[in-house]
Amino acid sequence: MHRSQISNRSRVFSQRNVGRVVAASLVVALAVASDVARAQTVPPPPGALRPYIFPAVEQFQLDNGLKVILVQKHTLPVVEGRLIIDAGAMREPAAKSGLASLTGRLLSEGTGAMTGADIARAMDALGAQYSTGAGFSTSFADVVALKNVFPQAMTLAARTVVAPSLPASEFGRVKNQALAAYQQSHARTAGLASDAFIRAAFDSTAPFSRPASGNLTTIGALTRDDVVNWHRTMFAPSAATLLIVGDIAPAEARSVAQQAFGTWTASRAVLPAVTNPVRPSTATRVILVDRPGSVQSSIVVGQAGFRANDPDYISMVALNHVLGGGFSSRMNMNLREKHGYTYGAFSGLDLRPGAGAFRVNSEVRTSATDSALVEAIGEYRRIATEAVPVSELQSMVNNLVSGFPNSVQSVQGLSGSLQSLIVWGLPLDFYTTYREKLSAVTPDDVKRVAASKLTPDNVIVVVAGDLSKIEAPIRARNLGTVEVWDQNGNKVR
Amino acid sequence: MRLRYVAVSLLCLATAHAGAQSGKSPELRIDYTRETLPNGLTVLYHVDHSTPVAAVLLWYNVGSKMEQPGKTGFAHLFEHMMFKGSKNVADGQHWALLEAAGGRAGADINGTTSWDRTNYFEQIPSNQLELALWLESDRMGTLTETLTQEKLDNQREVVKNERRQSVDNQPYGTWVEKTEEVLFPDNHPYHHSVIGSMTDLSNASVADVRSFFKTYYAPNNAVLVVAGDIDVPQAKAMVQKYFGPIPAGPTPPPLANMRVPTIVGQEQRLVVQDAQAPAPAIFVSYRVPSAKDSRAPAISLLGDIMGGGRSSRLYEALVRRQQVATNVAGFNFGLADGADMLVFTATGKPGSSPDSLEKGMLAELAGASSFTQSELDRARASERFAFVDGLQTTGGFGGRADRLAEGWTFFHDPNHVNKVLGEFDRVTLADVNAVARERLVSTNRAVLVYVPARKTAAETSSTRTP
């Protein structure tokens, strides 16, 4: 594999993924082109906007209750099939944290007479990109393949979800891989800060107070019986959706779905909606996590309690984009372009069933950690308390509105957009009206949503870095009550 | 003139042995029109009306391999300066205008620097094509007219932060620069990293920026791609209007001698005590033919067969059977001139010894030959998919515009994009076995061992003759 296109290159800007923000395009009123000067000293005006129409979303259901969503895209011979099941980490008991994720890993390790190695060889022989796993909201199996081999890849992927052997012989090894993945992510300041943030912001009964991976203790305690039971009780067509996106005709999509999943007969009780109770708080908490030797600190400032199916969701999307959704957003212009503290600073709306989180984050050089925190909290306060100028709002909203077609050029972009709707409980025709709604957001809307949702004097601040260098300067800033946690989320002082 | 393809017929679904299905590559073609402006700018136009999106993308034929000693990291630092305004574009306006027009920062609007080239791109709604062309032309023509020490100081800090974020603060973050240092001799243009050293970044001056601009940033040293939902005559008129008046620059200085011996000559071994690493990791790298060599596709396939996925030899041996590794990978960088680097890496279990990991890995690599046809077919299938998958986007990273520019810059052949699949199809088992036998030898490898350490980083190195 020639990997230079995805790594090992330096680029001017790299945006960390801080939660998915969706948008759609809109025909907006455009300034009429005026006479163009001889030498162009001002930006040339745009031409007539060509309309963008989100592709038709077709739905059907198999006899066993499996919902199938089909979006055709015929530009290249690529098809994706993605099965998502309402069996993410949010559904697992706290004591078994990491169970969904471990089960997801084991799905690819055998079905019928095929071993994990057989499955890997078969998928690779097809050139299919195949993965199984679980995140916070869903367990999934995914294949992306050239159209001529898609039916075979989808059929095999389905067998690994519907009838996995979850082999005892591979259990210990795969569990070790899960433990190692946890340790690798927690060797990074960003992983430490992210976990400390959700643990502080959510009530301990909230699924989102825990990382979807589980932790060393809970993963270590999982048994193969746990995995088998989880699969038996949680994996059922009535709780699943199959997304098929790409260069495939409806008739063939139906036949592939039927062939792959038609015989799946498991059933499952209807489960109540997940709640993610927020931890009550009255003042800002500052949580410090030590990672000796760090030359940068990860900083996070934010709050819990945001939902996609909230009437103010769209205004919140606009607010987020002004604060930290793009390069020209306030966070990045301040921390990077004005002060040079960081390579990038962002904000994100990390939506989850029940309740999600809104937070700003950045990796800042160690010596500037306290100064960067002051600027980040300052920007959070400013957007919470001061009106956003209409021109700034329009620019950032238009970025979301007009940039949407770019993000759904690939089948993976399309399926990701649709998956968000399913997970968040939004209607499948969301993208046809969302664009108008987003464009209609006014500074007053942002002001109202800011006043009702953001509490800049009562936020969670997390810093992971070298405390021998940053703790004293942070304490001297008097940002709130300071606590020091160990890397496992336990308060040490 | 639009992207088109003819899919191969559906293979038999009843076939039980998927390994037998080597298949054929889909026939697809990226059409383009080429023109050369009098000032030497090469322009490629590619039409695709499927989405109302247009892409503007420039490759300048300059990368870190052109940097002089003591000025490492400069090509990339310069790339950052290209976003700080030019004669008619105030600082911050490049981003602000493009974001307001609908370009997503990072994915659609960005610049990247590699050893071999620097690129800049915008993917925007097609009615904003003229804005993107104007912005690119303004900085190509007038970048240094508004250059200030303050702008340079700011971006120097940003780049230092980028280095901290991607190298110094990450477990194993130094592996690329350490591998380059041992696979290429001192003073070889690939010996130093793209991001450069903190010291050299500190020493960069405004005069350096001016001189670099004058030397390399001219229309005759670049290729411009205009792709997507465009009308070619209209796009040509815009290109002529904005890029036509920019004068040609002097011919850039010739590239330093990139040639290196076929193999390194002696095994290089380096042990790194990494205070941030939670588990040991091994990187074994080999000097191999470059991206311009006819054996390049065989090199990529060799990387796949050995370490490219869960059916690769290293995964089966180290992860499944011996269980000394939790993950493996195999890939080459695609360096264009002289030689490339083929890398295999394995990450151990936390708390485990690096010795068994290293031993297992070297044993597997030492036996790397006598590949089977099904191993080659699997590797080829994954390359085929990855190539087609990448073509889904018009602009941005690795999309169609990027592929067209790559063909022109490295091969002087814009049609190169339409030959890639055929080149993979033609590789034989004998080809892969031959490069493996010649290159995967102990005298041609660099072994980098990362050992978790609780203390501050220290290093030991040794050279081992077999």
Describe what this molecule looks like in 3D.
The complex is a heterodimer of chains A (493) and B (466). Chain A is built from 16 helices and 15 strands. Chain A is an alpha+beta fold and 493 residues long. Chain A has 2 domains: 58-261, 2-Layer Sandwich (Cytochrome Bc1 Complex, Chain A, domain 1), CATH 3.30.830; 285-485, Metalloenzyme, LuxS/M16 peptidase-like (Cytochrome Bc1 Complex, Chain A, domain 1, 2-Layer Sandwich), CATH 3.30.830. In chain A, strand 12 (342-350) and strand 13 (356-365) form a beta hairpin. Chain B is of the alpha+beta class and 466 residues long. Chain B folds into 2 domains: 31-243, Cytochrome Bc1 Complex, Chain A, domain 1 (2-Layer Sandwich); 267-464, Cytochrome Bc1 Complex, Chain A, domain 1 (2-Layer Sandwich), CATH 3.30.830. In chain B, the strands form 3 sheets. Chain B has a 6-stranded mixed beta sheet, sandwiched between helices. In chain B, strands 11-12-10-13-9-14 form a 6-stranded mixed beta sheet, sandwiched between helices. In chain B, a hairpin with a 7-residue loop joins strand 11 (325-332) and strand 12. At the A-B interface, strand 1, helix 2, strand 8, helix 3 and helix 4 of A face helix 1, helix 2, strand 6, strand 7 and helix 3 of B.
Main sheet strand line-up of chain B? 3-4-8-5-7-6
Biggest beta sheet attributes of chain A: 6 strands, mixed
CATH superfamily of the largest domain in chain A, called what?
Answer: Metalloenzyme, LuxS/M16 peptidase-like
Tell me the structural class of chain A: alpha+beta
Number of strands of chain A: 15
SS element count, helices of chain A: 16
Query: Can you give the helix content of chain B as a percent range?
Result: 25-40%
Count of the domains of chain B: 2
- In the CATH hierarchy, the third-tier topology of the largest domain in chain B is known as Cytochrome Bc1 Complex, Chain A, domain 1
CATH architecture of the largest domain in chain A: 2-Layer Sandwich
The biggest chain-chain interface is: A-B, 104 and 133 residues
Oligomer: heterodimer
Which structural class is indicated by helix and strand composition of chain B? alpha+beta
CATH architecture of the largest domain in chain B: 2-Layer Sandwich
Gap from first CA to last CA of chain A: 48 Å
CATH superfamily of the largest domain in chain B: Metalloenzyme, LuxS/M16 peptidase-like
What form of chain B results from the Cα inertia axes?
Answer: globular
Largest sheet of chain B: 6 strands, mixed
**Which CATH class of the largest domain in chain B?**
Alpha Beta
Number of helices of chain B: 15
